[in-house]
Amino acid sequence: MKGQSAALLALVITLAGCSVPGAPRYSDNPDGMLRPATQVSTLTLKHSQRVAVIFNANTQADLAYLAAYNAQARNGLEQNQLQAPIQQAYIDSSNPRLAIDTVRSSLQQQFASVAFYPNLDAAMAARPEVIMVLDTRSTLATERSSDVQASVRAQFYDANLTYIGEARGMDGRNMTPVWTHTKRAPEIADQVNAQRQVQVNALQRFDASLKALVASNP
Predict the structure, then answer these.
(1) 55 forms bridges with which residues in the sheet?
(2) Cβ count within 10 A of residue 121
(3) 28, 36, 113, 143: which has the fewest C-beta neighbours closer than 10 Å?
């Protein structure tokens, strides 16, 4: 068990290294390219609408962070020969596609058409009824911090870039160090999997918020 704990500690230290920072620096103004105006659009959200989705700088940084964490987890786990359940837990809990794919599914259930675009100009050129700016943020565990957080925020604008409304979901959890010598492999795997559950909880709350937002605009 001591060998397993040493390998796990080595991995977690690797996850906090220069190539995978403890968390990216997120902007306090997540809207970036589009800021909510004092005037709110008269357009209401409806199931029949076409929605164009773009990522703000926070989401782009978040995807890069998760991808780097996931890559380090895969490489570090292979090098340190951790048990398979722990390996899978680290890989699953840093899946960079989880939030994007889940948000896509939530949107597809509420709107007639959903398409993702690389920037605002491309989204505007598609002439959708609604433009959505996605803001995601994640903090996963490292040896420097056991605070795990996830948030998802979507802001909706009309074709004139006037603010309509927003949906959001978030969750967080403070975890004890995973490399403690007294913990067995199944317990460690369960704790690492808790990182994914935090993300899932945030996404479920986002989905509920989105449903409520659309339902409030019949």
Answers:
(1) 134
(2) 9
(3) 28
- Residue 133: pLDDT over 90: yes
String of DSSP letters for the chain:
-HHHHHHHHHHHHHHTSTTS-SSPPPPSSTTTT----SSPPS----TT-EEEEEE-HHHHHHHHHHHHHHHHHHHHHHHHT--HHHHHHHHHTT-TTHHHHHHHHHHHHHSSEEEE-SSHHHHHHT--SEEEEEEEEEE---SS--EEEEEEEEEEEETT--EEEEEEEEEEEE---TT-TT--HHHHHHHHHHHHHHHHHHHHHHHHHHHHHHHT--
Sheet holding 147-158, edge to edge: 113-116, 50-55, 130-139, 147-158, 163-174
Spatial contact of 67 and 138, defined as CB atoms under 8 Å apart:
no
Q: How many domains does the chain have?
A: 1
Whole-structure pTM value: 0.84
Cα–Cα distance, 129 to 7 (Å, whole number): 52
- 5 or 43: which carries more pLDDT confidence? 43
Torsion angles phi and psi, residue 35, rounded to 5 = -115, 135
The token pair at 147 is 């605070």
Task: Report residue 115 as tokens.
Answer: 């398409």
Closest among 56, 108, 96, 103 to 72, alpha carbons compared: 96
Alpha-carbon span 22 to 140, nearest angstrom:
7
Model confidence at 1, in pLDDT bands (50, 70, 90)? Answer: very low
